[in-house]
Amino acid sequence: MTSLVTDVLLANTDLLEKEDLGTRIGKLSTHIDEIKGEIYHAVHKKYANYRPTRDSTQELHNKVQTLSTEMQTLSNKIKVLTHKITIPPAPLTYR
Q1: Within the chain, which residues score under 50 in pLDDT?
Q2: Which GO terms describe its biological process (predicted)?
Q3: Which of 34, 48, 72, 88 is the least crowded, having the fewest Cβ atoms under 10 Å away?
Q4: Pairwise CA distance, residues 15 & 7, whole Å
């Protein structure tokens, strides 16, 4: 059997531990909310910077693709013309 003093101390200790846990949980919840806000702002900032860069890059990609197609078309025409020019004439015959 425990003494009255021990029982009172144990009861108060449980109360203090419960209060301490409640306080700690409250502080952790506040800290979690602060971190959520920081993450939201960081992601939003990155996305706000990312989207214009992505759009600009897509425009440049489209321009390069168009230029590449034009270069390929020109190259094919040059090959055709070169082929026509390099066809050897009929051999000359002397009589």
Answers
A1: none
A2: mitotic cell cycle
A3: 88
A4: 12
Q: Which sign does the torsion angle of CA 4, 5, 10, 11 carry?
A: positive
Nearest to 64 by CA among 56, 11, 28, 82: 56
Displacement of CA 36 from its chain's centroid (Å):
19
Give the pTM. 0.46
The pLDDT score that the predictor gives to residue 89 is: 64
Interior angle at CA 28, CA 24 and CA 32, nearest 5: 175
C-alpha to C-alpha distance for 50 and 44, rounded to whole angstroms: 10
What is the length of the chain? 95
- pLDDT for the residue numbered 60: 94
The stretches of the chain forming alpha helices (DSSP H) are 4-85
Distance CA 41, CA 47 (A): 10
